[in-house]
Each structure stands twice: as structure tokens, then as C-alpha cells.
Amino acid sequence: MNVDWTTFWPRIVEATGETLIMVIATLIFGSILGVVMGLLLFVTRQNNILENKIVFNLLNLIINIVRPVPFIIFLVAISQLTRLVVGTTIGTAAAIFPMTIIASFTIARVVENNLVSIDPGVIEAAQAMGASPLRIIFTVLIPEALGPLVLGLTFVSVTLIDFSAVAGTVGGGGLGHVAMTYGYQRFDGSVMIVTVLILIVLVQVAQWIGNTLSRKIMRR
Amino acid sequence: MIEFKQVSKTFKIGPREVHAVKDVTLTVEQGDIFGIIGFSGAGKSTLLRLVNLLERPTSGRIEIGGTDVTSLSAKELRRQRQNIGMIFQNFNLFNSRTVAGNIAYPLKLAGTPKTEISRRVTELLQFVGLADKAANYPDQLSGGQKQRVGIARALASNPDILICDEATSALDPDTTSDILRLLKKVNREFGITILLITHEMEVIQSICTKVAVMEDGEVIETGGVFDVFTDPQHGTTERFIRSVQQDLPSPGILKEWRDAGGGKLYRLLFKGPIANEPVLSRVTAKHGVTFNIVYGSVRELQERLFGNLIVSFAGDPVATAAAIDEIATLTDIEEVIEIER
Ligand SMILES: Nc1ncnc2c1ncn2[C@@H]1O[C@H](COP(=O)(O)OP(=O)(O)OP(=O)(O)O)[C@@H](O)[C@H]1O
Ligand SMILES: [Mg+2]
After folding, report:
1. Name one GO cellular component term (chain A) (predicted).
2. Which domain does A118 fall in, by range?
3. What is the pLDDT of residues A133-147, one digit of tens each?
């Protein structure tokens, strides 16, 4: 059974919008949480500006527990929590919640890795000038790591497009949902092809934006 | 004035202890260019980092202008650090900021008003000779230019003290002398006390007024640069001095001299004004002896002359002995005996 494309386009457009909302909202919330966690991980490390074993080990442990869980399993595993927070487990908003949690942990690691690669001498120079730890975070750590950080976030957002499709298959809406219900369950190959093409375009655009931004920041 | 009073620093790496600085007592006077020299691992960087408490001492006191810095609160320490500029071997500039942005950074920390910041940045860029580089980023500069930015940044908050950790070790010899000249200018024009560490005796020789030699965490010798250079008390000090001025011909040349039947060699040292006097020719003429300069140099150190000559004498042995005795009353003379070095 084939869909009627003259009436199906609006459904595709709507689904693309949902996917974009899921990805962008997740990226915003996930970045806020992830950057905070990544900074905390970094500054509480041994010999760092706010060394704190308890905070570091706790964060490290949580991230290590959550990150290896496959997204589809995580999605199902925390569905009770999702219902509690969002009120439902179906739809775009319900997909954003688990996506944000997973994304923030991934981003935390990305941020930490980029901060570790900052020359410690530069941080020391700021300390020697009398900068406070908070000041160092905002005026040294973030600006010095920003270029690679944007590339890291781009990488994460591409993964999120993937995740949004996964979330779509279990009731999350968006292109994944369309591909699942029309392409897979009703054997309509053309729907499948169109959704895949749109996903590819989205990934390309995200990568292009990320590359351009980071190049601007790193002046290369 | 910086005073180290019985300062020690021990690092604990697991069960192992590294005594990086051991019981150092040292005074750096206001206006000094004080150099600390030592081989790698001697504890120089650690000692320097104790001044602005990038490292905390395990025991002892560090006083700056009479204040015990180890007793300062976090906030007071940050204020104190604004009074101590620091420059680094690897420059440690902020790559995300322009040259002007780097120099402005400490001023922003101090809460300086915007117009004052831009005035001061322009002034500092002029002082270090980089007026045309304000808008460049550090990765567009040469090593020497980067260190100039480092110096300008360290001077921005008008510190009384400048500490330098191997500031010229990453630079070629020409650039090194440029930077050293700039540091001397900083000391002269602003009266800033400079404490620097290095493993290069040239650095000590060309700008320092006082020197301390470090080995295994201890200060083994300290004093005015002229005195330490002309009369070293310690083997390590002698090795450093020999790295910049060879006081003896090489063993090969000495052997050739002996094999060719050359007589005894004597080493004469002239310190200060006596280097200007014709001591050697006057005394030898008086005793009817001739002399031959085999090797030697007269150099300037701390605006004083320092001569080091290797000579042989020819003539009646009794007269020669009398001439040598008379020279010994005027300046240092000793027979050169081949020592394994
Ligand atoms: N943070 C640290 N933790 C453990 N050991 C340290 C630390 N910093 C320095 N040390 C040790 O202390 C000793 C002195 O080191 P320091 O860096 O002060 O030497 P240095 O004289 O500056 O040497 P170099 O000329 O190579 O820079 C060395 O044995 C070094 O390994
Ligand atoms: Mg060192």
C-alpha cells in the first residue's frame, strides 16, 4: 500500500520539524548540563583549581554507568521517570527528556576531553596573575577550549539526529516515527527513501554549521 | 624584598618523597636582578613557584616586604599575586586572545577602567616594541615576540617583583640577548626586583647582580655575581663558570706545550682595577725575567674587569721565584697543575 504523496508531504514536513525540535532542544538542555558537568569534572581533578575527590569520583562514576547503556534500552529503562517528569512517554517532549540526559553525559566527556588538552601552563599563568577559580573557568577554560568544543558538540548533534530517529520508533514522533509506521510497517519503500534522504541532509547541514563555526573561532 | 626563611618543599608521590627544596634561606633585596642557577632537577622552578605560592612550602616562611605570604587568605593572596609578575619558558599566552587582549587580562582582573586599560596596553606594547602587533594572535608571533608579550602582560599590573622561569631557554642566542636587555630595562626604568632561574651561566653573567647556585634542592653558594665568578667556592659553581669562560687551555694544548719542553705554567687572576695595571711587565722587568702569555682573557663582569692569564717565565730560577713571590703580593697567582676535569 502506497501513500498519496500529494497529501503526504505536509506530514513529512511536520515530522522533520519534530525531529529538528527534538535535536535542537536536546542540544540546548544537554549542552547546559553537559558543559557544567564537564567543567566540574575537569576542575575537581587532582591538582586542579578546585580539586575535590568526592565530586570528581561521584560524577565520573555516574557518567561511566550511564554512557555505555544503549540508547534504546535507556529510553525504555527510564520511561517511568520520563512519565513522572514530562507526564507522558509518547511524543516529542517525552523523547527530549531521555535524549537530554544521555546527551548531557556525552557532552560532559567531550567538554572534559577538550579542557584536558588546554596547556596547564596557561591556567597557571592566570593563577599567577591572581585570577580566582571561577574567573579562570569563564575567562580561560571556556574561551581556550571553545573551538574544539564546537566540533565536539557538532559530533554530538549528529548522534542526536540518530537518537531522535530511535526515539521516533518507540513513539517519539519525528522522521523516525514516519519511517517506522509508513516505511517499515506498511512496506512503502519511497517513504523510507525520503526520510533517509532528509536525515542525511540534516546531518550534512549540522556538520557544515559546526565546521564553519569552529573554524571562525579557531581562525583557521 | 623577598625572604626565604628555612623553606623546604617536599612532594609526595605515593609512598615516595621528593625533597625538591631543602632548608633554603635567601634574601632578594629590592632592585636586585637575582639569578638562581642549577642543573635540571635542582629545584629551581619549585623555589620560584614558592614566591607566588603556586607551590606551598612544606615548612619555613616566605616573606615579601615583611609579610608572611603563607598566612594570607585566598583573596589576599590573589591581590598579592597581582604584585608579582611572572613569565615562563613557554610563554603561556592565551591563544584565544589577541596580543592586546593578553596584556589587558591582568588589568581586567584588577578592575581597571576600560579607557585606562587601552591606554596602558598601548604604553606597554610600545615599551616592549610590539606596537604594530596589538591585533595579532599569539600563534602569529615568533618566540621572541611571544616572550615580549609575556613580559608586557607581567608588567601590566605594575608589580614590584618579576619572577622568570627559564624565560630565555626556548629562544635562540640573539633573541635571548634581546629579551635579557629588555629585562634589564624593566629593572632599571621601573625599579622592579627580578628573580630569575636559569641553567645558562650566560644569563647570570649578562644581567644578574646576585646569584645563588642550587644543587639537590639546596642553595650551595650565593653572593654578588662578580665575587662568585671570580672566586667560586663550590665545584658545581666552577663547572657553570667554565661553561661561559674557559680559564685553561684544553688538555690537548697543555700536553703539546709540555711535550715541546715548555716550562712551568702559572695562572694569574686580576680582579677589578689591577687588571688595568702593567703588573706583569713591571715586576718581571725589575727581576730581569721575561714572560710569555700562553693563554688568557680579560673580560668585563658587572662593569668590573676580570683577567685570567696563563703565563710562563724564563730566566734565572732564583730571580723567577722572587718575581713570582712579588706578583703574589699584588694579585692571585698559582701554578697550573694538570687536574683531571
Ligand atoms: N608537582 C610535582 N610533583 C612531584 N615532584 C615534583 C613536582 N614538581 C617538581 N618535582 C620534583 O622536584 C624536583 C625539582 O624540580 P624542579 O622543577 O624544581 O627542578 P628545576 O631545577 O626547575 O629543573 P629544570 O631545570 O629541569 O626545570 C625534581 O626532582 C622534580 O621531579
Ligand atoms: Mg624548571
Report:
1. plasma membrane
2. 7-218
3. 999 999 999 999 999
CA of B47 to the centre of ligand 1 (A): 9
Q: How many CB atoms lie within 10 A of CB A11?
A: 13
Considering CB atoms only, which of A119, A122, A128 is closest to B86?
A128
Query: Where is B298: in which H helix or E strand?
Result: strand B290-301
Helix, strand, coil shares of chain A, percent, nearest 5, are 85, 0, 15
Domains of chain B: 2-242 (3.40.50.300), 251-335 (3.30.70.260)
Nearest CA in chain B to A49: B54
pLDDT tens per residue across span B44-54: 999 999 999 99
CA A64 to CA B197: how far, in whole Å? 44
Cell representation of residue A87: 507526564
As a whole number of angstroms, the distance between CA A35 and CA A52 comes to: 18
Torsions phi, psi of B253, nearest 5? -65, -40
The C-alpha atoms of residue B280 and residue B266 are separated, in whole angstroms, by 12
> Residue A41 and residue A29: Cα distance in Å, rounded?
18
Contacts of B90 in chain A (CB under 8 A): 119, 121
Query: Ligand 1: which residue has its CA nearest to atom 7?
Result: B11
Give the CATH number of the domain where residue A80 resides.
Answer: 1.10.3720.10
The candidate with the shortest Cα–Cα distance to A168, out of A26, A22, A28, is A22
Contact B105 A129 (CB under 8 A): yes
Cell representation of residue B205: 653573567
Whether the predicted pLDDT of A180 surpasses 90: no
Q: How far is CA A74 from CA A35, A96, A119, A173, in A?
A: 21, 13, 36, 18
User: How does pLDDT run across B127-181, given as a tens digit for each residue?
Assistant: 999 999 999 999 999 999 999 999 999 999 999 999 999 999 999 999 999 999 9
| Residue A75 lies inside a defined structural domain of this protein | yes
How far from B281 is each of A64, B239, B284, CA to CA, in Å? 84, 31, 5
What's A69's DSSP letter? Answer: S
* Cα A136 to Cα B257: distance, rounded to the nearest angstrom: 65
Residue count (chain A): 220
Looking at the structure of chain A, the number of domains it has is: 1
The residue assigned the cell 719542553 is B261
Please give the model's pTM, rounded to 2 decimal places: 0.88
Gyration radius from chain B CA atoms = 25
Grid cell of B44 as nine digits: 629551581
Please check whether residue A2 lies inside any domain of the structure: no
Of B139-153, B192-206, B268-282, the poorest mean pLDDT is in B268-282
Q: Nearest ligand to the C-alpha of residue B88? A: 2
Contacts with B78 from chain A: Cβ below 8 Å: 130-132
CA angle A219, A29, A122 (to 5 degrees): 40
**pLDDT at A130 > cutoff 90:** yes
Interatomic CA distance for residues A116 and A114, integer angstroms: 5
The whole-number pLDDT of residue A1 equals 56
- Identity of the amino acid at B135: A
Is the distance from CB of A210 to CB of A153 less than 8 angstroms? yes
